[in-house]
Amino acid sequence: MDTEPAAAAILEIDLAAIVANWQALRARHAGAVGAVVKADGYGLGAAITAPALHAAGCRHFFTAHLAEAIALRPLLPGAMIAALNGPLPGEEDAYRAHDIRPVLGSLAQVEAWSGCAGRWGRRLSALLHVDTGMSRLGLAAGELAALAAEPARLGGLDLCYVMTHLAAAERPQAQSNARQLARFRAACAALPAAPTSLANSSALFLGPGYGSDLARPGAALWGINPTPGRANPMRPGFRLSARVLQVRAIAAGEGVGYNASFTAARPSRIATVAWGYADGFHRAFSNRARAFFDGRPLRLVGTVSMDLSTFDATDHPRIGPGDWLELVGPHQSADDLADQAGLSPYELLTSLGRRAARRIRGAE
Ligand SMILES: *Cc1c(COP(=O)(O)O)cnc(C)c1O
């Protein structure tokens, strides 16, 4: 007897589309193309997506945290795995033991690693992150100048990449892009010669000037539009659907959900769906989101609850318990859904909870 409880929501991950997206980005870029799989592969599951990309030939992976990188190490033999957040004091042995490439983002981190090379009596490979306008991670201008004036501070280190990160790559008109590119070029010229790593997803669409030896796309791999406001060049990497639990008839004038933020203007049918803010369906979607059934839209009405949301199914007489509503799929992209709550699609994707059953469609 099958005692598995039925899923209340399904996140369907299309590995063939994700691999095709990586291949499409690789075709656009003269240098290598890696994959950023931080935050558990943007919520889709790094242990699912990273090995599929590895099988397709991807050899450079980035996480944010060291722990995320260590978890992926056995799944990605021979590949570079780098942790973008940079090594904290005391983490050096773990980086070495698990063969994780540090991303050095301050002079102190450079000194610590150069010291390790001396102590361990071997040369160490590292990425060097220079800050060109994010003021977040990476060597500040003064630190860069100190390093350029005294390259011996890099003693024992092999810089496998010098990298930077653009603050507004998804806005081609932003002047910061060209400014950061010029600063990056100047930084690379001042440092010992090393390969470069520049573009995230959107920067791969800024033009050939933003090429480097290693691009670092994340979002575009999963099908998020790297060119907002223009047609999405990527294939959707996932679908999301949630299940209808009940459908009820209510009279005109009745309220729906907490604080009755929606009142029915007509006799209505309300479909209650097993997908709430604990699943990443933030309360900002209240009275704003849309889902699809049979290719036709229905509106979310009322305030999103922790585990539930309510949709106006009045014009959908066929909807009943057990039916699936499309939240992300052929009729509505992740970008569209996120926009309905004023969220970034990155935010939507990374907040999807663990309660959706992951279904994997294999790579071709
Ligand atoms: C997240 C991140 C990326 C990937 O950005 P996308 O916009 O998802 O392509 C690349 N580089 C760094 C430093 C990042 O933090």
How would you summarize the topology of this molecule?
Elements: E1 9-14, H1 15-28, E2 32-33, E3 35-36, H2 38-42, H3 46-55, E4 60-63, H4 66-72, E5 80-83, H5 92-97, E6 101-104, H6 107-120, E7 124-129, H7 141-149, E8 157-163, H8 175-190, E9 196-197, E10 214-215, E11 238-250, E12 255-256, E13 262-263, E14 268-273, E15 290-293, E16 296-299, E17 309-312, E18 324-328, H9 334-340, H10 345-351, E19 357-361
Parallel strand pairs: 1-19, 2-10, 3-4, 4-5, 5-6, 6-7, 7-8, 8-9
Antiparallel strand pairs: 1-11, 11-14, 11-18, 12-13, 14-17, 15-16
The protein binds pyridoxal-5'-phosphate (PLP).
Describe this structure in words.
- The chain is α/β, with parallel strands linked by helices and 364 residues long.
- It folds into 2 domains: 15-222, TIM Barrel (Alpha-Beta Barrel); 238-332, Lyase, Ornithine Decarboxylase, Chain A, domain 1 (Beta Barrel).
- The chain contains 10 helices and 19 strands.
- Helix 1 packs across helix 3 (46-55) and helix 9 (334-340) crosses helix 10 (345-351).
- It starts with 8 loop residues before the first strand and ends with a strand.
- The mean pLDDT is 96.
- The chain binds pyridoxal-5'-phosphate.
- Pyridoxal-5'-phosphate binds at residues 36, 38, 84, 165, 200-202, 216-220.
